[in-house]
Amino acid sequence: ATHEETLGFQTEVKQLLHLMIHSLYSNREIFLREMISNAADACDKLRYEALDNDALYGDDSDLRIEIEHDTDAGTVTVRDNGIGMSRDEVIRNLGTIAKSGTAEFLKQLSGEQQKDAKLIGQFGVGFYSGFIVADEVTVRTRRADADEGVEWRSRGEGEFTIADVDKPGRGTEIVLHLKQDAKEFADDFRLKNLVRKYSDHIEVPVRMPRVETDKDDEGKPIEGTEKTVWETVNEATALWVRPKSEISDDEYKAFYKHVAHDFSDPLTWSHNKVEGKLEYTSLLYVPGRAPFDLYERDGARGVRLYVQRVFILEDAEQFLPLYLRFVKGVVDSKDLSLNVSRELLQQDPQVDKMKSALTKRALDMLKKLAKDKETYQSFWNSFGSVLKEGPAEDYANRERISELLRFSTTHTESATQDQSLADYVGRMKEGQQKIYYIVADGFNAAKHSPHLEIFRKKGIEVLLLHDRIDEWLMSHLTEYDGKAFADVAKGDLDLGDIEGEEEKQAQEETAKAKEELVKRVKEALGDEVQEVRVTHRLTDSPACVVLSEHEMGFQMRRIMEAAGQ
Ligand code: ADP
Ligand code: MG
């Protein structure tokens, strides 16, 4: 080995390693899935780069993953003949975490095992999971377009050593030197089961060696005739290509974990083959919970794009709108060119058509999910505020999106957003024509607003909006089911036909009687107000501030002020 140097892990890696080893102990068998997932990605990447440069295959075009173990040495080896890594790539990929928001994410980790395990799952465990079972990991790799190999070694304790080495074949070999209490994994049966459990769906064959000998006439093995036969252990066809009826829920779930780099089960999925002018297959998933970078500007989003089964792009964000950025999965197109790039995708009219079809599919999948109240609630709690970006971004689908929205209302008086607009409309009072709502900074502010007094008195339900995005949402929602939305804090309060004639008359009389008072108040307040008038909004409070019909709401004002407007 030459050109050897020892480098420190990035601080974030050190922290993550420490916490991961501690909190994922009871899930430690997932290390194998992560190694195989990376090996499969590496094969995908080679296939993609080889589209332009067939020479990368050399004389070895059979992409495969091999798993071996050595019980005596206590090692498990995962090998692939995929793209491999250069020295720089090794240092970057196995020494740092490039995801933005990592530092903030790590601050949330508490040292409490169960809670951290969930959070780390959300972050994606990946390569470093090797250190849950190994006290030393050796990586030997050679990039498909390089002559030199690189060896990376670490005990996961703050630093790693890297050196140039000879490596005949391209690709990556990872040797896990198992910890004393993890030797159980150096076992044929155990490994085979894990491959089947977690990686059956991987398209590349995952092979394990079996030693065979010739047999004599009596069927006894003949000494000295041992030879290694490689047996494919997994299904080894692209999952989305197989007919739906032949894929089990467990296979769908396992595949999700691979494409989404997620640790936990998805909530639901939708698998479709589209034939006709545009031919493609899509397999879309709704994750079980939000990834840590859902609100990061450069957070991972989009689907994995394949063209005729060849992997093209991770995170192809052109196929779904931003408000569905939590949807994960695969799109495999028959029509796009294999040379398609991010830039070309942006201009391709076929991509727009697919985007609008996939958007409908995704919304449909959510509609179906909504039938299961409990599961939908868990979806809403994670992704509701992202979905609320929908009406503004996707005007054409605002009806569909409206049906998926959930709110807090005066009906339940609970901060949990679990009431649909259909629920609200179903409870509307006779003669009520509008859907009333109030926007405030927090649930309690909304719930205790004096604007609600008259509504409570009359038993009219009001939506209690208290998410940061709510005012933005309401400025793009004008009606639902033919009923207009009305902000109870804005303009004239028109309760429609709910008020009887008598009530209206009484109000007019009061207004006349108080004309003098109104005049005096207006003089006292001067330019501070536009108008002062007698109201029947209030039943307990003496007065309140109201915005005129078309004025920017309080929340919006604050956002604008914060932005220096
Ligand atoms: P992720 O797979 O989510 O990107 P990982 O922690 O699993 O994150 O892997 C980190 C990176 O290391 C990968 O993105 C890849 O660039 C590189 N890597 C890991 N294993 C291999 C491999 N077998 N072949 C080539 N590159 C690999
Ligand atoms: Mg990975």
UniProtKB/TrEMBL annotation:
Q: Which UniProt keywords apply?
A: ATP-binding, Chaperone, Cytoplasm, Nucleotide-binding, Stress response
Q: Where ATP is bound, by residue?
A: 34, 38, 80, 85, 93, 99-101, 122-127, 172, 342
The record, for InterPro entries, names: HATPase_C_sf, HATPase_dom, Heat_shock_protein_90_CS, HSP90_C, Hsp90_fam, Hsp90_N, Ribosomal_Su5_D2-typ_SF
Protein localization:
Cytoplasm
> Record keywords: Chaperone included?
yes
Query: What PROSITE patterns does UniProt report for this protein, alphabetically?
Result: HSP90
Q: Which residues form a coiled coil?
A: none
Chain residue ranges for the region called B? 343-558
SMART domains named in the record? HATPase_c (SM00387)
State a GO cellular component annotated for this protein.
Answer: cytoplasm
A: region residues: 1-342
Q: Which GO terms describe its molecular function?
A: ATP binding; ATP hydrolysis activity; ATP-dependent protein folding chaperone; unfolded protein binding
Q: Which residues form the Histidine kinase/HSP90-like ATPase domain?
A: 27-182
Name of a matching Pfam family: HSP90
Q: Which family does it belong to?
A: Belongs to the heat shock protein 90 family.
Q: Give a short account of what the protein does.
A: Molecular chaperone. Has ATPase activity.
Matching entries from PANTHER family are given as: HEAT SHOCK PROTEIN 90 FAMILY MEMBER (PTHR11528)
- NCBIfam families this protein is in? PRK05218.1
Q: How does it assemble?
A: Homodimer.
Q: What is this protein called?
A: Chaperone protein HtpG
- Lineage, top ranks: Bacteria, Pseudomonadati, Pseudomonadota, Gammaproteobacteria, Oceanospirillales
